[in-house]
Design goal:
alpha+beta; six-stranded antiparallel beta sheet; 14 strands; globular; Peptidase_C45_hydrolase; Peptidase C45 hydrolase domain-containing protein; Peptidase_C45
């Protein structure tokens, strides 16, 4: 197996999406033909599923029309219908929440809800000391994505997107028959007529530069990623209720790639006044300071909230501990989870927490590659009887300023490649 790399430069979100979709078109179609993707479409074909989809799309168009354009670009480039791709942007909400509810499917569409614990994903190890500043992440997702993930280096120069001179001949792009300049007009109405801009407006108008691992049909950011200011990793969480008026998690995390301060990170995930559709854990480290945080987003039928925990910097050569996050809430007061006993998540958390304190990249790789607990291994090998596997590992070495990407067990292999931090 090998993880592909793609460098993308464009003037709009549509242009970025188009180039990614075109580059990985074959993988997009293979993903859409899978049983898991067909189940998402089956949910969409139900009355309840269509209502969930329409509410999420409306909220997204109001908050981040530029990201809707990015999805349209992905659709155009890959020749996959837009609704299929937006369904994948709702995949966490659908798989981890709605498919275990009464979705009221139509008589023509029946499905059996999956065992949701199989879909809980990812383990993170965080160390923040003078000798070792690392965030390591196992990306656990559907087995069908194994061998089809890719890393994209994205640069969007929105300031270069000037109005097209009427005398200039510009070739339209894709079935939407749009030029890159025309694509940005969808978001132009969001420019404020007052002094203070919302966080959505700030992020939408900015130039962006980031690196992210991604899987076919999904937005970038929703795995492990970095921009010029932060590194990010993502873990699924399962609150008991969903915020039906919120913006999908994947969309907000895509928007997070434009954040420049931890305050902006919080504001993006708060996403006032709509909030976030569902719960998620984000682990974030500053590239330029010794700061490191773990963020939990919690949803309820009344909205969503954000809890931020700053991890102490151990000012000694020997760190006293390391921090582990899997798929259950750790510090959000009063959080109600869909399951009382998340066996697989707790097993991975227990195994990782009771390892010797890591003092190097090699030590973190050892923990992330641990397979000692057969019921809930930290590194989840591809086996026919399991629907989920570790499809990639990302390790951010904040002292050496390198992002290491592994396509095999990191305790037993070298990285596919190592990417210097952005400057």
């Amino acid at each position: 197996m090998s993880i592909a790399r793609l460098s993308v430069k464009a003037a709009t979100n549509f242009g970025v999406g188009y180039k990614i979709g075109a580059a990985f078109k074959e993988h997009f179609h293979e993903r859409c033909a899978s049983a898991a993707s067909k189940r998402l479409k089956q949910f969409y074909d139900s009355d309840h599923g269509r209502n969930v989809y329409e509410n999420a799309l409306l909220s997204t168009e109001r908050c981040y029309p530029n990201i809707v354009q990015e999805l349209r670009g992905l659709s155009d480039g890959s020749e996959v219908p837009f609704e299929n791709l937006f369904l994948h942007s709702l995949a966490s909400e659908i798989w981890l929440y709605y498919l275990d509810k009464d979705a009221n499917p139509s008589p023509q569409a029946t499905f059996n809800p999956p065992k949701k614990q199989e879909n809980l994903r990812c383990t993170d190890i965080l160390v923040n000391s003078r000798s070792c500043r690392i965030i390591g992440h196992n990306e656990d997702w559907q087995r069908e994505c194994y061998g089809k993930g890719y890393v994209v280096d994205v640069e969007i120069d929105k300031q270069s997107n000037k109005p097209v001179n009427k005398t200039t001949s510009v070739k339209p792009v894709g079935k939407y028959n749009q030029t890159e300049s025309a694509c940005s007009e969808t978001a132009s109405h969001t420019k404020p007529h007052h002094k203070h801009k919302s966080i959505q407006q700030k992020i939408s108008e900015r130039n962006e530069q980031f690196v992210s691992f991604a899987t076919p049909c999904e937005l970038t950011g929703f795995t492990f990623a970095m921009n010029k200011y932060f590194v990010f990793t993502v873990n699924s969480l399962v609150p008991k209720e969903s915020n039906t008026e919120g913006v999908p998690i994947a969309v907000l995390i895509r928007a997070l790639m434009g954040a420049r301060s931890i305050e902006e990170c919080v504001q993006v995930m708060q996403n006032e006044p709509f909030g976030c559709c569902y719960g998620i854990n984000l682990n974030i480290a500053s590239i330029h300071t010794n700061e490191m945080w773990s963020m939990e987003v919690y949803s309820s039928k009344d909205g969503s909230s954000v809890s931020l925990k700053q991890l102490p910097f151990e000012d000694s050569e020997t760190p006293q501990n390391h921090y582990v996050h899997t798929n259950h809430y750790k510090y959000t007061p009063g959080a109600l989870e869909l399951y009382d006993n998340l066996l697989y998540s707790c097993a991975r958390h227990f195994t990782a927490l009771h390892q010797d304190t890591p003092k190097s990249v090699k030590d973190v790789c050892r923990i992330l590659g641990d397979t000692s607990n057969s019921e809930g291994p930290i590194y989840r090998q591809v086996v026919p009887t399991e629907k989920t596997a570790t499809i990639a590992t990302g390790l951010f070495d904040l002292k050496s300023k390198l992002m290491h990407v592994f396509d095999k067990n990191p305790n037993l292999s070298d990285p596919c490649f190592s990417i210097p931090f952005l400057k």
